[in-house]
Amino acid sequence: MRILLDESVPRQLAAHLGEHEVTTVTRQGWAGLQNGELLRRASATFDVFVTGDRGIEHQQNLPALGLGLVVIVARDNRVETVIALAPRIREALEAVKPGTTVRVAA
After folding, report:
1. Which CATH code is given to the segment(s) 2-105?
2. Residue 82: which of 35, 47, 50, 46 has the closest Cα?
3. Residue 68: predicted pLDDT
């Protein structure tokens, strides 16, 4: 599975997502793009977008993009906080389908 981590997600999470192919928005050279353009580009290359942006699923037409979305709902986006959720994020990655959203709450 090809996974893209948003700027709001610590890049260190990639090492905790198993055998998936994981990269970041910054590594792709897409830092600073508006959500619509970012998701359009992501949908052409990736299967799932992982973000801490709780409103993104209501701002974009995900079913039309065919991109799975995992939203991390945590008290903050510090490395320690997000890494502690890694097992649940891995479960969400297995459950998410194209055009749907799975929320991972702390």
Report:
1. 3.40.50
2. 50
3. 96
